[in-house]
Design brief:
Elements: H1 2-15, E1 21-25, E2 33-39, H2 41-48, H3 55-59, H4 61-68, E3 73-75, E4 86-90
Length: about 110
């Protein structure tokens, strides 16, 4: 499913100015599902409106949304925090409450 979403996003991002663009990444031994957002429609729109300072709060909604579905979610790069892309990682066999909170960008210990 993630592969299909990534493929469709390539088409939509060329047609719609605020579309998201995703790249599917092959799973590895640590993460069972991986995909990156290389173009964020929300960031582009809010930045254009002069509201990019609220992006980190919007980005953190992902943790809440995925935990509602019982998916342990990790992220170590976020466009809204100034990174080049958002890296979305899942560990299917991990606890939903992860050690990745607070998320990258607002951690005091410097870890991503």
């Amino acid at each position: 499913m993630l592969k299909k979403i990534a493929e469709k996003s390539q088409k939509y991002s060329s047609e719609y100015p605020y579309a998201w663009e995703y790249r599917y990444e092959e799973p590895d031994n640590e993460y069972s599902h991986k995909y990156s957002c290389t173009r964020c429609g929300a960031y582009m729109f809010l930045n254009e409106m002069g509201l990019s300072d609220i992006m980190p709060y919007i980005c953190n909604i992902d943790f809440v949304a995925f935990s509602a579905y019982g998916l342990p979610y990790y992220r170590n790069e976020v466009i809204g925090y100034g990174d080049e892309k958002c890296v979305n990682l899942f560990k299917i066999d991990a606890d939903v409450i992860t050690d990745n909170w607070p998320p990258h960008g607002i951690r005091k210990d410097g870890l991503k």
